[in-house]
Amino acid sequence: MTIHPVVLSGGSGTRLWPLSRAAYPKQLMPLVGENSLLQETIQRVADPKRFAAPVLICNDDHRFLVAEQLRAIACKAEAIVLEPVGRNTGPAVAAAAMMAKPENLLLILPSDHYIVDAEKFRAAITVAAKAAEAGSLVTFGIKPTAPETGYGYIQRGEAAVTRGAFKVAAFVEKPDAPTAEKYLAADKYLWNSGMFLFRADRFLAELQKFEPAMLAAVKEAVAGATRDLDFIRLAKESFAKATSKSIDYAVMEKTKDAAVVPADMGWTDVGSWAALWDVAQRDSQGNALVGDVIAADVTNSYIRSESRLVTAVGLDNIVLIETVDAVMAVARDRAQDIRLIVDKLQKAERGERLAHRRVYRPWGSYETVDIDDGFQVKRLVVNPGARLSLQKHARRAEHWVVVRGTARVTRDRDVYDLHANQSTYIPLGAVHRLENPGEEILHLIEVQSGDYLGEDDIVRLEDNYGRV
């Protein structure tokens, strides 16, 4: 039987701030290996003999990043579906189920999990598929290795649905430490992995039973969906009417047909810096040191440098993260409390909560190097064959200096090429475009000057990426 993966990539991953932010969340980052968590998720189901091409569901802001990561691993998705507003996993899965054939077996996979043993993961799917074919809504329960208080639990029933799959006795909220100790000792409680397998029609039937209003809103959003380049855009007003609920609350905790497959696959949801330390390679002192880090008399710690030398002496059980625009330190056993910092940043309306200094665009990226009253300096990286929109600004002029590669410049009626160490000036109000006609990545310095330098001072007249 063919399994149809549905990969959910709508999260913001703020528990891994300052590395993971809303504009560039953890699933798009190579946190453990060379590939991002999203890419690793897709590669685990890349066998065409067992799995169909995946359907990805992501938010509008991440669409080009997701598409580029798929291209980088030579994955052709069945569809990339855009959520116009965040409504949790219930409506997202409902949309995927409505777009599938009724008999399709849908494998629901969060894109931000890390799994050590891919073979055990696929073996668990084989077991779950038999139960799903028989009509069960199957979840995957991870055998706990510690009294974890950051995960929800599933109480396994005694009755077997099919071989290796059991009735769910109960879903249990995140416990306190003493309760988690009891769950670990009882040997019948499993971590709730957030992964599911079921027939599309069975899920929709149960959703109709428990959340008819959600189902109606999503049905309307799918009916009104439009094609936008390589993406399917759900109708915004309709999707916004859907109740914001997880698949657990909407269906799994209510249905009488929930089943669980116990699995031991080295799973973690990488939900905190402590969880990332758990799966990282560590030295003889228990440290995971990533990037340009020098440590002395440091033990049991996770230290990560993104842009400069980071040093530490005489520390134990800490997490220290450095990025271009922020440094964060926390006791490793309090890593879940990063939300306290993120909440303070939100109240202060600090931009560091949402985006990195380097901002990714479908054509490449830009990074603010310096900014003050009346000017801003950016470094632009333009991919081979890519071009920015044809645009103009009402309140700023720009100077462009090519550092490496070839820049093709459109300035009003003139079109000309620039090479390394050459520059040009874009007057205020001029219609202009930058593109890279070469096979080498274009690196360019942009100096903006004017009384307002915000990104919303862009009037797009033509765009390859549908942003006009």
Write a brief caption for the model:
With 468 residues, the chain is an alpha/beta fold. It is built from eleven helices and 30 strands.
How would you portray this structure in words?
The protein has 468 residues and is of the alpha/beta class. It is 22% helix and 35% strand. The chain is built from eleven helices and 30 strands. Strands 20-21-22-29-24-27 form a six-stranded antiparallel beta sheet, with no helix packed on it. Strands 6-9-7-8-12 form a five-stranded mixed β-barrel. A four-stranded mixed beta sheet has the order 14-16-18-19, with helices on one face. α3 packs across α7. The longest helix is centred in the first third of the chain and has 16 residues, at 118-133. It is globular, with a radius of gyration of 24 Å.
List the helices and strands and how they pair.
Blueprint: E1 3-9, H1 37-43, E2 55-59, H2 63-72, E3 79-83, H3 89-99, E4 105-110, E5 114-115, H4 118-133, E6 137-142, E7 153-162, E8 165-172, H5 177-186, E9 189-199, H6 200-210, H7 212-223, E10 226-228, E11 231-233, H8 236-240, H9 247-252, E12 258-263, E13 267-268, H10 273-279, E14 288-290, E15 293-296, E16 302-305, E17 310-313, E18 318-322, E19 327-331, H11 338-347, E20 358-361, E21 364-372, E22 375-382, E23 390-392, E24 396-404, E25 407-411, E26 414-418, E27 423-426, E28 432-435, E29 442-450, E30 459-462
Parallel strand pairs: 1-2, 1-4, 2-3, 3-11, 6-12, 14-16, 15-17, 16-18
Antiparallel strand pairs: 4-9, 5-13, 6-9, 7-8, 7-9, 8-12, 10-11, 18-19, 20-21, 21-22, 22-29, 23-30, 24-27, 24-29, 25-26, 25-28
